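explain this.
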Amino acid sequence: MATFPHLPLERLVGDIDRRRVPNPVGPPQRSAPAHAAQIQAKVDTAVAEQRVVPPVEGINPELILKVSLAHPVQEDSWRTAGLKVLAQEPNDILVLFSDDVELREFRTRLGQYQADTPEGRQNPAYNSLFASIEDIGSISPSDRIGPRLRNDGIVQLNDIRVDADYGIDVELWDAPTQMDREVRVQLLVQHIQNEGGEVQSRYIGTAGLIVLRARMRGSLLRAVLEMSAVSCVDYRPIPDLGERDVPLIHLERQPEATAPPADAPIIGIVDSGSVDHPLLTPSLIEAIGVPANLGTADIWGHGTKVAGIAAFGDVRECVDQQSFQSPVRIISVKVVNDQGQFDDVETIPHVMKQAITALHERGCRLINVSLGDKYKIPYDGGRVSQWSATLDQLARELDVVIVVSAGNSAGGAQAPWGVPAENIIGAYPNYLVAPNNRIVEPATAAIALTVGSLAHANGLPADFGGAELRAITSTNTPTPITRSGPGINDAIKPDLVDFGGTCVFDGGTQRVAAGEDFASSGMLTLRADYIQGLLASATGTSMAAPRIVYKAALLLRALPDASANLVRALLAVSASHPSEAIQALSPLGDKAMRHCLGYGIPDLYRALNSEEARVIMFADRQELPIDQFALYRVPLPKDFQSTKGKRAIKVSLAFDPPVRHSRLEYLGLRMNYHLLRGMTPEAIIEHFRHRNKDEAPFEDLPGTAKCSLLPSRDVRGTSTLQCSVFKMAKNIDRYGDDYYLDVRFQETRTGTD
């Protein structure tokens, strides 16, 4: 079939102020005098509690409040009342900061709210602020204890042994300026050192992320948890690198690997390092360590397995063809030491920034991070980690595609399928969407591409006939240990899936076995200890992620000027859900499909090529100011309009907004779109444009104007990668030759449509 280049998507107009629909639901009705008195008493108690805690020398006393809300409050309302929003927690809880420990402006407004309602008004002054407040209090030390410490049984101060030694990361609340951040960190470092602790490293970001890595006795840790400047204290992340020992796989004869072209796309592998593997060396143009004292050698073996798939895509196919010719170049960055741990001294944000910046400086725009947190704490809907936020900031600032793995389920007592291991046969696939099988950090990163895993086969070895070895699933269904979404604010995560191997149940050992046990269960890749054997087998989302970055590299080879957003959008628009996966997950509902598979598995051929009956139109590096919209024309051929049979229009949108690590409204900005038909551009603009209060209200759209895109605007609207489809089977020529795509850009806030 003939193929053609993709076509440009025509932008008709842009930068038009869009209309905003106020939220009709307001704060609850309250008795202002009584409610104000309650708020006053709680504020007094919180202020008194925080005065008891001795301040760090040199750091001015600060007041940190925890406020529970019955109704959202605009951030500007807090600001004008003398408070700054530091963080947003689950269940409508805000963390507020004031450098005025007396809260003078807040108390003044509270007094006005408590007074009689002004004549001619329905509500007291500042009703939207104070009537929305459900509760106010101080942040307790237990509020500052992170999830890894909690997972270890430390949920309050008394759980910390005063004579024990702790290695921890201390996250601080943001400060007004970069200078304030530097000063605050230095004073806190001096305080910790004066009290006998050791500060090993620090990371002071420019977007509000401040982290210290330290070692200290339990007695000092208790004191640190009392400090108002501290946001969160937790154990350091541990990378989940899977099993080290893998079955030996030998080639009958060693094929010769050839070097890729000098201008081939570069893939960065941020992992456990690399080796001079004879099949990888022609593609490996550089290896570095971050920090440098780690060296570059892959002692653990995980990085070489990931790099093998990133370099060749399908290693099994290379073996079958006896040809190892990679179309990409590889740079390895070792961030994991020889014991499979992150560096003891440097913080994760600092390591990630150094590693990804070093890759970017070397011309790399595609980066694979097949690392997860070995604590395997499922994402529970709260704030994202420092790790995830750093990846998102770098993806946005550097215009790079960062691909991360969704994480793998743990066995044993933590297994989402329960105990004993035999349960997995009957429990699959229901447990895949259980809360304890949600993605783990850094898979919540919003701008990074998160990748889940599909089974490439049933995993049973051809020469093993024992009844005790049982298949759990089959080709094109979710890998039994893959994890599911959603991400923050119910964002669609994972974004994509690809083959990552499978698992089988081994009745002889009473455990779930994977590619590390049976080569037939895993993805074929390269072995770090290549003297013993060139190839290895492995299972997990760590093996699926490099297949996606390999496809992204081939897209970038064909479209070298493409932005990272265009690469993400093309992968999504080419993706689909395998019929086998649909059949397996359909009984669990629509959400199960989305949470396990995202937009599906990308088809590289479809992403690269347009055809006579299937055309991709795209617009790249578009700009749109906040609270405005743009209109794009989607021309439809006559045959498409009148032909009977199934047809579809698929829309994909990728963007990279600023992120806010401490907020549940993690994305500072959101985008969305409508697909419209049967209207002129002028009528669409008139409907969606902003109106002054003295103008006539807008008219409703005709019932047939909005195309019913799935997933819907509300479902996809919190994701930075969105893809939806409008399906049709009837004659549609009555709607005209042109459809229109309305794309809007808005600040994340309440009271907007």
